[in-house]
């Protein structure tokens, strides 16, 4: 029996050693959850070593009283550690659920640690009563009559763990929850077996299996660490925020964003850039030391590092000063890429300044857009007073409310025909006037609607509203030939898109020739076959298409060749640079190329007389922008056309 126990211990030691080496090699030693898991591993490792030493000495007493004393000491150490393991594992579960802070309450500490204190007292009393175990030269290790008491007290921790897992089920990722529950089943089965079989220590092997399960399915190293820079991954950052959101545990975050990181990485190459980021992460850890409490660091989209303080009152502002000084020092030394990287910093309180995970993720990447020219730091007070942040935090609620209460409204922007010298078409644009926050810019709610999956119902609203409008006005009397409507990616890949347009035509008696559909050049990247089929079917039905945002993507010519396009809309970003000779030449050549291929050209975002005159001179067919007219609600739009198209 002794050799079998030693074999189990050796297997357990091998498993624990491999996991421990993996954890250190992959730098999975920071953060509340990883530190809690590391404590579990150390306790299990000590337990295994004590069991191996005690088992070896029991099998080799050799009538030596000194070895009896040594065995007794090892068994005491084994039992102290054995009943410490479920305590540490319980704390690990609490950390995975993001509710470890409940241990700050005196009653909870008393229940958890008080039970362990009672176990230690019972073990200590064994020195006088010998009712738990004895070790003799004749019989070796022998259990006492009161051993069931201490086994029962140990099972209390498994019961506590089950209660915590059941209560915190919604706070833990389903895969992790089932893994923790399964690990507990393994632990209880092993404890029950060991309670009924005196000369076995199968619990040690069971604990090793629990640790292996935790490493593979809870820590999940392939998702936890971004090995290119040896920092925790953005996926883990999201998980951390989700846990704290579910547990309603606020955090303080310090976000570093190198706004030109993509360009610098392209300049230096992947390996050198990643080497610099690894070096930066090590220096950040040194700057933080141990003076800021529990801190985790995550690496996200190129040039984004999130430092998360578990204490929402941590003095992150002090660390900001250290980071700025470090970055300035490196830049002064002309060290690449520090000399060219442009750093922006944000300090924010999660669940106070920003209340939702997705809004926090979005802010972490895009906060430099909220800064003024020359600003390098944005602090909680500034974030709390930013309407854009408030709206982004409540975006899901705002969009859902707008759909429910019909708070969306269609605006129409007239498009000027250079040939006819009047407004012959217009673009339908959706606007949102929220009952609580007022006007919400489309640049905010449309990307949020795309992210949240609301574009399909919004698309239905747009089509229905525009078709209803076209059925109620006399287009020819207004001088309007057609209306341009934007199609979203989600609409373009619908299998029932043709049926939807057929129903609209029948319901409102609107002809396809009255509608021109706008698509963007990046749409077909999502589902090119379905999109191309849908657009081709609509084209054959009589609809015509415009390619929107020309000049902002990477493969416009390919899109023009493969999509049924009649009109190309040159993006405002090119029009804004018409004061540059090179840009004027590009626009002029683009207009000529499109005409050569039988396509009409619309120039968007025209705001000045000089821009309009230049575009007319190079043969642009249509001009759209504030110079001629801003987007306007239905009544104002009709009045505008009646006034200007006489």
Keywords:
elongated, 646 residues, alpha/beta, 15% strand, 58% helix, Alpha-Beta Plaits, TIM Barrel, Rhopdopsin 7-helix transmembrane proteins, 3 domains, 8-stranded mixed β-barrel, single chain, 7-stranded mixed beta sheet
Summarize the structure in words.
There is one protein chain. This protein folds into 3 domains: 2-219, Rhopdopsin 7-helix transmembrane proteins; 223-393, 2-Layer Sandwich (Alpha-Beta Plaits), CATH 3.30.70; 415-430 and 455-644, EAL domain (TIM Barrel). Helices cover 58% and strands 15% of the residues. The strands form 3 sheets. It has an 8-stranded mixed beta barrel, surrounded by 5 helices. The mean pLDDT is 85.
Condensed summary:
By secondary structure, the protein is α/β, with parallel strands linked by helices. The chain has three domains: 2-219, Rhopdopsin 7-helix transmembrane proteins (Up-down Bundle); 223-393, Alpha-Beta Plaits (2-Layer Sandwich); 415-430 and 455-644, Alpha-Beta Barrel (TIM Barrel).
Per-chain topology:
Blueprint: H1 2-25, H2 32-58, H3 65-96, H4 106-129, E1 133-136, E2 140-143, H5 147-167, H6 174-196, H7 202-219, H8 221-224, E3 225-226, E4 231-233, H9 234-247, E5 251-258, H10 261-268, H11 270-288, E6 295-299, E7 304-309, H12 316-332, E8 343-350, H13 357-366, E9 377-378, H14 380-384, H15 387-393, H16 395-405, E10 408-417, E11 422-434, E12 438-440, H17 442-452, H18 455-472, H19 475-478, E13 482-486, H20 489-492, H21 497-508, E14 515-520, H22 528-541, E15 544-550, H23 556-562, E16 567-570, H24 572-575, H25 581-596, E17 600-603, H26 609-617, E18 622-623, E19 632-633, H27 634-644
Parallel strand pairs: 4-6, 8-9, 11-13, 13-14, 14-15, 15-16, 16-17, 17-18
Antiparallel strand pairs: 1-2, 3-4, 5-7, 5-8, 6-7, 10-11, 10-18, 10-19, 11-12
